[in-house]
Design a protein that fits this description.
Radius of gyration of chain B: 18 Å
Distance between the termini of chain B: 17 Å
Structural class of chain B: alpha/beta
Helix content of chain A: 25-40%
CATH architecture of the largest domain in chain A: 3-Layer(aba) Sandwich
CATH architecture of chain B: 3-Layer(aba) Sandwich
Oligomer: heterodimer
Strand order of the largest sheet of chain B: 7-2-8-1-10-9
CATH class of the largest domain in chain A: Alpha Beta
CATH superfamily of chain B: LigB-like
Shape of chain B: globular
CATH superfamily of the largest domain in chain A: LigB-like
Largest sheet of chain B: 6 strands, mixed
Structural class of chain A: alpha/beta
Order of helices and strands of chain A: EHHEEEEHEHEHEHHHEEHHEEEEEHEHEE
Low-confidence stretches of chain A: 308-346
Mean pLDDT of chain A: 86
Chain lengths: 507, 306
């Protein structure tokens, strides 16, 4: 493995131009070990790391950031998430391992209001949260080191969040995304700092400080590859390989910090990256990285907390020349409908990839059903499958047959849902279901079970119920069993999907 | 005079027990809670301090919350005073401590550790804050803090390689500790500041001491804890050590930090029966207060270190 990452002096300070409408000025990854702050004179590499962080300091100072948000992999929690809420925490830090380097007096200015907003967002997700406002609370070495080097005069108020050491990828991504929602509610422009090392295998024997090196050649190779990808701005790609990187190179706290950062920005590679430096600290790997958004970063409506959601979300994907092709051999990308594009947002709808429904089943006892009067599937599955006397329909949404147009939704230029009309969409769903049933020589009268998926139960259930009653609730009409659940998101920007089962008997 | 190990104790450090005890040094106030475990510590104190010949001169504590990455560190100044705030449970534990250290014994342990081929360091920064794990185990064992302590850090770096490498280091540190105690001429109690199974709840009741919400996290980890306690009660400490890596993996046991191995090694892996003073859960984790009464069962001989 070879890379272009070398240990070199930081580049000149950039004057950052925050993308229009963005509350994120830039994201940084910096190490949290105390050597660059407290012992930079003992090793040239530690000194270069300090200079790299001072470069970041100057870059932030030259930007229009109004606050710094820290997420440190050294502030570990096991019970939910903690948020620093003391407006003026002050104490004397002595690192548990590197106490020989002396003591650090700190006296920080914290945006406690942001802590409350962020804590509320995380609590709303069902997590335990605590706003920390206790005299003498031990701020971790990583946060202290970063704040001392990046914001030494408290020019900007700081916000500090903990890292749950047991949280896995999806939870950490979602905690990051919650930070973005909090930033939007708070309304200040933010420089985001992830305090995390790279490989974290320390020397287990004493070495002279001036002769420091990465403790494992394999770790070094991995670190360089990771920095090369980050240098290209590809944060999402690094997030996806974080588990393997961690396994191979013992990355700092499983590289959770990258998941948090990637969640905050909405899982994207849409950055310009810059590696300010890469150096060993007592065997571990440490990089200073800047990631500069190419477009405004905003929170993702209907954020999916799903391990299977491994790709960038379509609504936030960077512009591509063509829609990504599914790997299935029978898939085809339909041409976008002009009418659909004009009705909503072409960039978002163009990314809906449809599939030709499988016409036949591999088993003689089953029969696939597909209808040209219903919208094509968005995956390799049939509209319906008859097994014995029953007909099982796949989940059906409101998309208009033969187009990518979704009735009853308004999207903004970036494909975010601005508003939706559940009545229009529910009627469209039921019309699509009728078309599929008709293809199987059936009708709504044969439906025996309905599963309903709504993206906003509070807002839409009542209206949905009323429309549903028009189709199933009339006297003498069918009365299928029904289950209604709220889901975080559906595969396309729709607010309702139904899955039905019909009894066909001898038809 | 040759020093002696009076007892080795598995002495868990949930800050909840200090919180529930309402000592004047702790700022948060409680309505009680976790009595079973606190009564267990009472029984331990009775066992350690009632017999005048058994009373220790020094209490050694190995805590997983003083984490170091290069070697095993010991406190190297005679007195530490300050405020320890638990970074995980700051609402329960904000403890004003005033603790004397047996620096002579600390230095002997550092020296004997080096003789075992270990990296040892002596911590001499006066601003250093003693971790809440050490304070909790020491407070619950000796609330008056009238006996000096020796605190030893938990060296995490061997575990980057394997649990077994880490445990081997702790066996060496145990032998070094026993030799240092023998050289010191003191009577010592060793506290292995570890819980047992360590899966825990991720939420907390509105009143943390609400005992209607307290139970072991999972039956499987309870069974593991009972299996480990059975070996302790039967005097099978060697067998126990052999099972520790599996226990660590299966029950996320906190003994991974090495304190139990260190303590049993210092006692030279006793074959006499340990006394379980109490077992109970704290936010779902398994905790036991277990004493190896070396004074009675091994005639107060210095432990390992042969």
């Amino acid at each position: 493995m070879k890379s272009e990452v070398t240990s070199k002096s930081p580049s000149p300070v950039k004057t950052l131009k925050t993308p229009a409408g963005s509350l994120i000025t830039a994201c940084y990854i910096v190490p949290g070990l105390p050597q660059p702050l407290m012992a930079s004179e003992k090793n040239p590499g530690w000194k270069r790391l300090r200079e790299a962080m001072e470069n970041v300091r100057d870059e932030i100072a030259a930007s229009d950031a109004e606050m710094i948000l820290y997420f440190s992999t050294q502030w570990l929690t096991v019970l939910g998430y903690l948020f620093q809420a003391d407006k003026n925490p002050k104490w004397t830090l002595v690192d548990h391992n590197w106490h020989e380097f002396g003591s650090v007096q700190y006296d920080f200015k914290v945006d406690a209001e942001f802590a409350s907003v962020y804590a509320r967002e995380v609590k709303a997700m069902g997590h335990y949260v605590r706003e920390v406002n206790y005299r003498g609370f031990p701020i971790d070495t990583g946060t202290v080191v970063a704040q001392k080097l990046l914001n030494p005069t408290n020019r900007l108020p700081a916000a500090m969040a903990s890292c749950n050491m047991y949280a896995e990828k999806q939870e950490t991504l979602s905690i990051g995304q919650a930070a973005m929602r909090a930033i939007e509610k708070h309304g200040k422009r933010v420089a985001v700092v992830c305090v995390s090392g790279l490989s974290s295998r320390y020397h287990t024997e004493e070495i002279p400080f001036e002769k420091d090196f990465i403790s494992s050649a394999k770790d070094d190779e991995w670190n360089r590859k990771i920095l090369e990808i980050l240098g290209e701005g590809n944060l999402e790609d690094v997030s996806e390989v974080a588990r393997e990187y961690s396994k191979q190179a013992n990355a700092d706290m499983g590289f959770r910090g990258i998941w948090w950062l990637n969640g905050l920005v909405g899982k994207t590679n849409d950055f310009t990256g810059h590696v300010f430096g890469y150096e060993p600290i007592y065997g571990t790997g440490n990089g200073v990285v800047g990631l500069y958004p190419k477009r405004a970063i905003k929170s993702v409506p209907g954020w999916v907390n799903d391990e299977a959601d491994l790709v960038e979300r379509f609504a936030k994907a960077p512009p591509r020349a063509t829609a990504p092709m599914p790997s299935s051999a029978n898939a085809h990308a339909s041409a976008p409908s002009k009418s659909a594009a004009s009705a909503t947002s072409s960039s978002a709808l163009d990314k809906i990839v449809t599939f030709e429904a499988p016409k036949s089943s591999a088993k003689a006892s089953e029969k696939n059903v597909s209808s040209k009067k219903a919208p094509p599937p968005v995956g390799p599955y049939p509209h319906a499958k008859r097994v014995g006397d029953f007909l099982f329909l796949s989940g059906v949404g409101p998309r208009k047959p033969g187009t990518k147009e979704i009735p009853g939704v308004q999207l903004d230029a970036e494909g975010n849902v601005v508003s939706h009309d559940v009545e229009i969409q529910t009627r469209a769903v039921l019309e699509n279901i009728e078309a599929i049933l008709e293809e199987a020589k059936s009708s709504l009268k044969d439906v025996v079970d309905v599963q309903v998926f709504l993206t906003d139960m509070d807002r839409d259930f009542k209206t949905f119920n009323r429309v549903y009653g028009d189709y199933f609730g009339y006297v003498g009409g069918p009365s299928p069993t029904r289950t209604t659940v709220e889901v975080t998101a559906l595969p396309t920007p729709i607010c309702v999907e139904l899955k039905v089962t019909a009894f066909l008997g001898s038809k | 005079m040759t020093g002696k190990i009076i007892a080795g104790v598995l002495a868990p450090h949930p800050p909840h027990l200090v919180y529930a005890s309402n000592p004047e040094q702790n700022e948060p106030r409680s309505e009680g809670g976790w009595e079973t475990l606190r009564w267990g510590y009472e029984r331990l104190r009775k066992s350690l301090f009632e017999h005048p010949d058994k009373k220790p001169d020094v209490i050694l504590v190995h805590s997983p919350h003083w984490m170091t990455v290069l070697g095993h560190h010991v406190l190297g100044l005679p007195h530490f005073k300050g405020l320890s705030v638990d970074p995980i449970f700051p609402h329960l534990f904000r403890f004003n401590y005033d603790i004397k250290v047996d620096v002579d014994l600390s230095l002997l342990i550092a020296e004997e550790g080096k003789n075992e081929g270990l990296i040892t360091k002596v911590m001499t920064n006066p601003d250093f804050r003693i971790d809440y794990g050490a304070i909790t185990s020491c407070y619950l064992t000796n609330p008056d803090f009238d006996i000096p302590i020796v605190a030893i850090s938990s060296n995490n770096s061997p575990y980057y390689f394997s649990n077994e490498v880490g445990q081997q280091q702790m066996e060496k540190l145990g032998r070094a500790t026993a030799r240092a105690i023998a050289r010191s001429g003191k009577r010592a109690v060793l506290l292995a500041s570890n819980s047992m199974s360590h899966r825990h709840f991720t939420t907390e009741p509105e009143i943390p001491e609400d005992m209607s919400a307290e139970h072991i996290y999972h039956h499987g980890q309870y069974l593991w804890d009972m299996e480990m306690l059975k070996m302790m009660r039967e005097g099978k400490s060697r067998q126990l050590i052999d099972c520790l890596p599996e226990f660590m993996d299966m029950a996320l046991a906190e003994v991974k930090a090495g304190a139990l191995t260190w303590m049993l090694s210092a006692l030279d892996f006793p074959s006499y029966k340990a006394e379980v003073h109490a077992y109970g859960s704290v936010i779902g984790t398994g905790n036991a207060i277990v004493e190896w009464d070396h004074f009675t069962n091994a005639k107060g001989l210095a432990g390992g270190g042969k």
